[in-house]
Design brief:
The protein is 0% helix and 40% strand. Strand 3 (36-42) and strand 4 (47-53) form a beta hairpin. It has a domain at 1-57. It has strands at 10-19, 22-30, 36-42, 47-53, 57-59.
Length: 89
């Protein structure tokens, strides 16, 4: 759901099921404009494995849990932080 649509939609749990060999909880959200989305969320990962909207399907597969190298979280050399109003300058 896009924030600009309206935060007054609804969300309800549909039940539990398996997705890619993992147990997940399935939720359905509906915006006030009637846009529907279902998500299969793995509680341990706090992340949806499968999301289905009116126009698209996104699915994560072959997820491997494990430690990540610290290098993934290092700010790249030459990075300059800018405020939103400064973009493009």
């Amino acid at each position: 759901m896009l924030a600009e649509e309206n935060p007054k939609g609804s969300c309800r749990k549909l039940g539990s099921k398996a997705n890619d060999g993992r147990s997940c909880d399935e939720y359905e959200s509906v915006t006030d404009r009637g846009h529907r989305q279902t998500m299969c969320v793995v509680a341990k990962l706090h992340f949806p494995l499968r999301t289905v909207t009116d126009s698209a399907v996104a699915e994560m597969k072959n997820i491997v849990e494990g430690p990540q190298p610290d290098s993934l979280f290092v700010v790249p050399a030459g990075y300059t932080k800018k405020q939103v109003g400064e973009l493009g300058r």
